[in-house]
Each structure stands twice: as C-alpha cells, then as structure tokens.
Amino acid sequence: YHQVKDKKEMKTLAKGFPASTYIKKELGAVQVGRLYQAEAEVFSTAPLHYQVKLLSPLKKGKQTFSLLPLRQRLQKKVKTLIAKQDIHSDSKEVFVALSTGEMTASMTMFHMKQFGLLHLLAISGLHFGLVAYFFKALLTFIKNERIKNLCLWIILSFYFFFIGLSASVLRAFSSISLTILALLLISTVSAMTMAG
Length: 196
Known about the structure:
Blueprint: E1 2-4, H1 7-16, H2 19-27, E2 34-37, E3 40-46, E4 49-54, E5 59-63, H3 68-83, H4 89-100, H5 107-114, H6 125-138, H7 145-163, H8 167-185, H9 191-195
Antiparallel strand pairs: 1-3, 2-5, 3-4
Helix pairs in contact: 3-4, 6-7, 6-8, 7-8
C-alpha cells in the first residue's frame, strides 16, 4: 500500500473520493451530502482505488446539496430489478456492471479479467454509442432532427448522471456531446468536418 500523508494530496483525494459509500458501509447510517471530518490514513491499493483507515471519530460538519443520494437510489432500483430476473447469477453481475458501471470483485469479473474482456464492462464510448443508437431509434417519431438530437442529448445527460464521473465516462460523454452539438449547429457531420 502507498500511504498518502501529504495534506494537499489528501484534499485532492477527498474531493473525488466516494467516502459516503465507505462510511455507510463501515460505520452505519450517516447522511449523504453532509460533510464529516475525521483524521484518516488513505492507502492506494490500485490506480483510483483507495482504502481509508479512520484514526478518530467522525465529527458532523455542515449539510451540503448533493445529487448522490438520488443517483444511489436509482442504481439500487436497477440492481434490484436485475436481481429479480430469472437468469444466471454471472449474467446478472455483467448486466449490473453494464447498466450501473459498478463491478464487483467476483469470480465472473476475475475470469473476464483473465481473458482480457474486462474493458468491455468499463463504461466508455462504446456504451454511450449503443445507448445513443438505441434511443435515436426510439425517437424516430420526432420528425425535426434538431429536436430529436436535443432530446437524445438530454437522455444521454441523464445516463451520464446515473453512471457517475470517471475518466472514461467523462471522455465518452464529452465526445458524444460534441458530436450532438455539431449536429445541432450544422446540418451534416462528416469525419472531415469533425477533424477541422
């Protein structure tokens, strides 16, 4: 483990660290969106994976506005819906990973990693492209192309919110947003037009 002791590095980690999930799991009920303060050591276990060891009790801070509880409730509903389906448990894990972007540490994921297929489950441009293609096909009843593309962008924005922020998701959403913006501003988009 790499111990993070630098205060600047700790602040940077704390901004993007999903501490509310960790605290709920390890310490019981806390309010998501409320700031908490505690002394802690952060250990890097892998790129973008951290373990936190609390060194002091949590102190309540001020309440902040957060959409995280809504996103967590939506993801929980999707997971519950998938869990109720009459399919193999391995398939359920794959569907959860594809729909919520969360991968569990299981034998299925281990085997996918061994075969070099784990990257297919990481939400990226491929998934945004498939979602865009699916909803564009559903929106064929809208005749005005600009309104259709605007509706598509709104749907993809909700999907982006639902998945959560990661480098590959942000890159994919930015790319598809620029493409849709180009479709809104000009009538046709070609590879040469996008290249500049």
